[in-house]
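note to self: dont lose this again. the chain is below, predicted strucutre after it. 354 aa total, dont forget to put it in the shared folder this time
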Amino acid sequence: MFLFSSSSNTPLSVPDIDFFSTLPHSSPSVHSLSDFFSMYVHLSLPFPLSSFSFPPLCLSPSIVLLSVCHCPQAHPALKAFMCGSLSGTCSTLLFQPLDLVKTRLQTLQNNAKPGAPKVGMFTVLINVIRTENFFSLWKGVSPSFMRCIPGVGIYFSTFYSLKQHYFQERAPNAGEAVLLGAGARAVAGVCMLPFTVIKTRFESGCYNYVSVSGALRSVYETEGIRALFSGLTATLLRDAPFSGIYVMFYSQAKKALPQEVTSSAYAPLVNFSCGVVAGIMASLATQPADVVKTHIQISPSHWSTTDAVRYIYMEHGMSGFFRGAVPRSLRRTLMAAMAWTVYEQLMARMGLKS
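---
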């Protein structure tokens, strides 16, 4: 475990510092998951960031979040942004290996010989560890952070702003929940698309980029600005429906539960469970669009969405559109469930209705 000192970017290992001595004297005892989330706000991220091949984060999201929380002048949308960014940090780091395995599965089919046996998720996982190393499972985590930390923040702040503007007096119905989630995700997806392209290329193993900035420069100089926004249509066809379907199932599942359950000490667990159910439904519905997006973004020949759809269908049939469905469903489901759980707990701690 590593912590970053406030005066430098130097990671401090466990032998150098007593982790629990970093807790403020006023920190509450941890008796429940809610207490954990409350305590977590006071801490710098205790992740082993120096173990991975990306620069240390100079800005601790929890420190910034704490300052925003205690600033009475801070706009609620800004607080929603910070809550979303923190939840995105946690979930991105935990579930990055599943995203890499999903991308490798989807790109392996391009190089597979006719009649070759199908490669499964665990085969890819073991192969990455054997041929590269264990931490190669986090390849692409740097662009993932640069995409997800602000991206999830933009998503939740947009979602919060839209909900407060249009549904302040009542809860949205199923159809309105779809539009609400899809609209917020479309805004975040367009803003973060260049980092999505770089992340996909990092994970594919087909490009030897050294850093995110170097990758952005290389793509811009060799392929032009258009390449940084490749797969925009497929990305929107994947992300907007995913978020819309997710928010619909998530809100409807919570609405169906008794009030005493959703307001009890088990509320985080209930939220997480509702998120898992919603994530599975949304992941399966948007899997074909994810496969199309991956093929477009790793191709240097500027494929259109139609070109990618035609290629996948001609080469692999309908099953090609569901390649990598298992690791993607696991990652998107768990990541979304965790992000929403953390977001709602932090918003509740600030006295804001999520």
